[in-house]
Write a structure and sequence with these properties.
Helix content is about 65%, strand content about 10%. It is of the alpha/beta class and about 750 residues long.
């Protein structure tokens, strides 16, 4: 059955590939005298279709899909189709300058888009964590193959150079091409091997990130030299100083400006996909700036991607939209065009073939030995150095970009371009099996095993995935208390927060809640070591005055993308049910929300003592979510947490004698999970179990008899006319004398 489906798919693909040729046969006379939109559309269709099919095949044999897209261009170009059916190749890809310029424009834009995506995937926090070892691996891994490339470039005969009088530029290009590793290929391979969270995996990816960054800076400088036509100190100084100034401004002022632009577009523009447009404009402007200072546009696009990726409100949805545009359109076209420009017929020359094999050997040995040497300097053992050497040897997409730019700038000849392309394919396809073999021999260290368990435990967490916080409060004790709790949660992970004031009566009262949030964020403990990726610096707090209906204000603001809504308005409840206003506010928010009710000491002005939190646990998803929030609040406020489990009464094995003093395996596992969550958050968790009593009675008695000042309860909305979380929550809402926080899924 599977073979039949594949046969049908291949038949359909063959028809789709042949159809453009038949259509273009009718338009060929017109295209021979100029450009044709039909030819352009057919080129895009073929590159997308063949790239998708060959990429799918490559992935099924454990190779990156990019290699399939590159081979699609080789198949459609002079290397295969030009040999088997020359007329079709000339019809599909005519050598008319106007026609070629159309597809080249898409390809050149694809370079910028690919560098934007690469920058967005560059994790600077990972670079900071690995530190010295990654830097030594990267520097040695760049220096050794770069010097090997310089030596090879100097040894090349003049016949292989596009401009023998500018040998140095070509030599520098070859050295750069051999030095850079493809962070995208490396990261994809490490992820597929399930080594991305391993220390050695992170080290390989980090070294590739540093490689890419240094490589693009180096390439931009070399391109600046090539653009001047001659090599002189003035042009070198202009390129180097311009690059350093651009980087300094980008990672200081530019970081803040880009974040503000993305947030402004997200929060103020109502048309479709405003953030995507903003990101593309930022990329274009930064590319033009680098071009103006004498370096290539690729550096501007790459740095723009890094800054965009660090934006605090780059939601996963926006990231997927932009990634879909790049991966679905621009990448297949760009890599397909790179394959089209390669002519494998030149490898029929024994000298060219031998030089290509020599290039592959020099590239592989240079990168392997450089990474191995850097790992040794960084204090790694030989097994880890072996994995580093193989992992850094993939060139892939980065090599193709470098070679394409070099060809377009006239720094590489067609023969050198083809040789570098073959080297990129060979090293990339050899890397996954060799890396898989070497990683399997790297032992798991004890501290690494502890970290991996912690990260796996937290990966399913709720609090670590909150990107933006929305707070709807009024000028009441519950409003001030909700502001304090929201500030503690925002401060614990530096979460950007927006405060909506429910019908403010004076500007000073609006400022009061903002000050409460700011004061709470400033008083939080330092971010957890387990949460070292949390951004540093002050929390971004925005206040928005509201003069319309509060639920409409929440609905309008919620469309801008928030993960959690804090509600603090009064009256919170009427008898045993939530007030209609609270229900309407919660109903307009489609994500998780938390309702705060100030009781007891929290109804008086002042922060008061640290939070002593009681959290009921039942083992379900919303119970765990409430426990996570409780632990985050306690960690931020230097407070304490007690987990209460209310179990059904058990009987002994003969089902006659009650045994209320025993704890079953399920209860023990539930409490152990909360204790482990507390250990990883740095908050000691006390546990308590109650049996043979209604849950609401057990909760209320524990609250009354203990020194708690807050109950955090994970709840789930129930079908009802208003807002309901079930009988237990309703009873607690009506009878509790301590403050409450209901965290809804």
């Amino acid at each position: 059955m599977a073979k039949r489906r594949w046969g049908e798919a291949l038949l359909c693909a063959g028809l789709l590939i042949a159809l453009p040729g038949a259509v273009l046969a009718q338009t060929a006379p017109a295209a021979s005298h100029g450009h044709s939109e039909a030819v352009f559309v057919a080129q895009i269709i073929l590159l997308l279709l063949c790239g998708r099919l060959l990429g799918e095949g490559m992935q099924r044999i454990g190779q990156p899909a990019i290699m399939g897209q590159l081979l699609a261009g080789v198949v459609l170009g002079p290397s295969v189709l030009g040999v088997l059916w020359p007329a079709a190749e000339r019809t599909l890809f005519p050598a008319i300058p106007e026609q070629k310029a159309m597809i080249d424009a898409v390809s050149q834009l694809g370079i910028l888009m690919l560098l934007l995506l690469t920058g967005m995937e560059t994790d600077l926090a990972l670079v900071r964590r690995t530190g010295k070892a990654a830097l030594s691996v990267s520097l040695a891994g760049i220096a050794v193959p770069f010097l090997c490339g310089i030596a090879l470039g100097e040894a090349l005969p003049d016949s292989m150079l596009p401009h023998p009088d500018q040998r140095l530029v070509t030599t520098l290009f070859i050295g750069t091409a051999l030095a850079i590793a493809s962070v995208k290929i490396v990261a994809l391979t490490i992820r597929e091997l399930d080594f991305l969270r391993r220390t050695i995996g992170q080290l390989i990816v980090t070294a590739a990130i540093v490689d890419d960054t240094i490589g693009w800076i180096l390439l931009s400088i070399i391109l600046g030299l090539a653009g001047h036509g001659t090599i002189d100190l003035a042009s070198i100084g202009q390129s180097v100083l311009g690059t350093l100034l651009f980087l300094a401004v980008s990672f200081t002022i530019g970081r803040r400006v880009v974040a503000l632009l993305i947030r402004w577009a997200n929060d103020n523009l109502v048309s479709d996909l405003p953030v995507i447009t903003t990101i593309l404009i930022v990329m274009g402007v930064m590319a033009l700036i680098t071009n103006a200072i004498g370096v290539h546009t690729v550096l501007g696009a790459f740095v723009a991607g890094i800054l965009v990726g660090q934006s605090p409100i780059l939601t996963r949805h926006i990231d997927e939209q932009l990634r879909g545009l790049i991966v679905g359109l621009f990448m297949p076209v760009f890599f397909g065009m790179a394959g089209l420009q390669a002519n494998l017929a030149v490898l029929g020359d024994p000298m060219i073939f031998g030089m290509s094999v020599l290039l592959i050997l020099i590239a592989s040995l240079g990168k392997f030995s450089g990474a191995f040497l850097g790992g040794t300097i960084g204090g790694l053992n030989w097994r880890e150095c072996l994995a580093l050497g193989w992992g850094m040897n993939a060139r892939g997409s980065t090599e193709v970009v470098v070679a394409t730019i070099g060809l377009s700038m006239g720094a590489l000849s067609q023969t050198l371009f083809t040789m570098i392309l073959v080297m990129a394919v060979a090293t990339t396809m050899a890397m996954p099996p060799m890396l898989r073999w070497s990683l399997a021999r790297v032992p798991l260290r004890e501290d690494e095993e502890v970290r991996l368990k912690r990260e796996a435990f937290e990966a399913e967490g709720f609090v670590p995935n909150i990107e933006r916080l929305l707070v709807m409060v009024d000028d009441s004790p519950s409003g001030h208390f909700a502001s304090r709790l929201a500030g503690l949660l925002a401060g614990s992970r530096r979460i950007p927060t927006t405060i909506l004031e429910a019908a403010p009566r004076a500007r000073t009262r609006q400022r009061r809640n903002a000050e409460a949030v700011a004061k709470a964020t400033a008083s939080t403990a330092a971010p957890d070591t387990a949460e070292a990726d949390a951004p540093a610096g002050p929390v971004d707090i925005t206040t928005r005055p509201q003069s319309d209906v509060v639920e409409e204000a929440v609905a309008r603001e919620a469309r801008k993308g928030y993960d959690l809504l804090f509600i603090g308005v009064e009256p919170v409840a009427r008898e045993d049910a939530f007030d209609d206003k609270v229900a309407r506010i919660a109903g307009e928010f489609k994500g998780a929300f938390a309702i705060a009710a100030a009781r007891g000491s929290h109804r008086r002005p002042g922060i008061g003592r640290a939070l002593e939190i009681l959290v009921p646990v039942t083992g379900n998803l919303y119970s765990r979510r409430g426990a996570e929030v409780a632990l985050a609040l306690a960690r931020a406020d230097h407070g304490s947490v007690t987990a209460l489990y209310v179990a059904q009464q058990r009987r002994s094995w003969h089902r006659r004698v009650p045994t209320p003093w025993t704890i079953g395996a399920d209860e023990e596992a539930i409490l152990r999970e909360i204790v482990e969550l507390g250990d990883r958050s740095g908050v000691p968790v006390r546990t308590a179990v109650r049996r043979a009593i209604a849950p609401e009675e057990a909760i209320l008695r524990r609250l009354h008899n203990g020194s708690y000042n807050l109950l955090v309860m994970g709840v789930s909305p129930r079908p009802a006319e208003g807002l309901s979380f079930g009988h237990a929550a309703a009873a607690v809402l009506e009878r509790s004398e301590r403050s409450l926080l209901f965290v809804s899924s």
